[in-house]
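Let's sit down with a protein and look at its sequence and fold side by side. Please make up or recall a protein chain and show it to me in full. Label the sequence line and the structure token line clearly, so we can match residues to local backbone shapes. Go ahead whenever you are ready, and we will take it from there.
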Amino acid sequence: MEPAQHNKKLAKLQAKQKASHNKVIRDNKIAQISKDPRRKSHDQSYSSDRSDSPDGMEEENVPVQRKGERKGSTKINAIQNISLRYKKYFPLQGNPMENEFETPELLAKLHKTAVGEVMERPKYSLGNYDSYYNYRYEKRWQDPRLKLLKKDLFLNKNCLDIGCNEGSLTIMIAIRFFPKKIVGLDIDYRLVNKAISNLKYFEKQQGLSKAAPARQEEEDKPEEKPVESNPVDNEKVKQLMEKLKYFPKSFTVNMGIPTNWGHNDISKNKVLAAATDKAVNEVQEEEKRENSMNIENENEGRRKSVNGGLQIENRFPDNIQFQVENYIKDMNILERYDTILCLSTVKWIHFNWGDCGVRRLFKKVYDALRPGGHFVFEPQDWRSYKKRKYFTKEFKQTYKEIQFRPNNFENYLVQRLGFKLVEKLEPDNENVKNEGFKRSIFVFQKPASAAEN
């Protein structure tokens, strides 16, 4: 064998031996690190006492999915809700950090107005997709999350929806669950304008649906034969003409009454006069009912039905409004709410304002809730963060710096702020086609004994 060939084979053999030796050393180091009890969790400031529980909690009696059962079935959901009573949360180590809810860097970012944030940041970097609901819904205005949310969270209550986008879900809640008031809030003024347009569309549709039965009844009515003249009817028409003097001209136009009716020919207008008289009486009766209801509301404060149960205090479209605001810009609480929603929004707050921005959001939500109020929270998972980390250079840097990960949120809300997790809603993944609506929804409750700030 030539010396050159011998040297090549020898070099390859030595390289393989060295690679094998390095792999053994690397595997030993990984094994030692994984067994090290001093290893900390992702959240350096609030790590758990349990190294085997990255989100600072342990579950007992966790339901096991049996073969043949759907993941989102009612039976599995019921078992999961029962298991919340047996969930153990472990206290957070160390004292709270000094700048837990604000840092100089965060305050520097928050000095801009909501409009300035939208205009200066890259498009869609705030999660302000203008077709977010269009490409996620199987059908327009049918958000699958409505099936999970319970009416008791909204009925006759003051509600806030943080990150409402174009307002589709907010409008559906206002129509179906009858909140006393619900405010849809978003940082993008263009989306809020679109939400207001959607609101006007639904208001118009509601008006058309109410008018349709009345028109159908009129069409179905048989034609009435002219009534023979008699002095009594003539006197009624004259009285009606006197009544109409006190109504504006627009009333007769809206009721379809000819402006020249009854002029020196009363007998030709008796049928029309009878219908007009009925309309006038209905208007007067409605005014009396409204006056009596206003007096009753002032005296009792809250309307009650005959059997003592609560009635609906407000209805669509009077129970909904939209406004432009960056919710974490300041910590001032201008209004208290019974229910606050934050659905598929926290990831964008996290990428734009970091860990401190998320803690600031949680703290303000807690302070803005009345004692006993509910926080309906839908966080995106860490896998969703990975998909967006290259969206901008700022996102890439923030992704590297994040220590307060989504699996830490639940323990932080319970142990640090004092919330109680009362329910975890799981979607029916078989019937929901889009991945964006297959997330768990957490329902936290502020203690009834908590004092308002």
Notes: The beta strands are 57-58, 88-89, 158-162, 181-186, 320-324, 337-343, 369-378, 420-425, 441-445. Residues 78-209+313-445 form a domain with the Rossmann fold fold (CATH 3.40.50.150). Residues 40-63, 72-76, 301-308 have pLDDT under 50 and may be disordered. The CA atoms of residues 66 and 76 lie 9 Å apart.
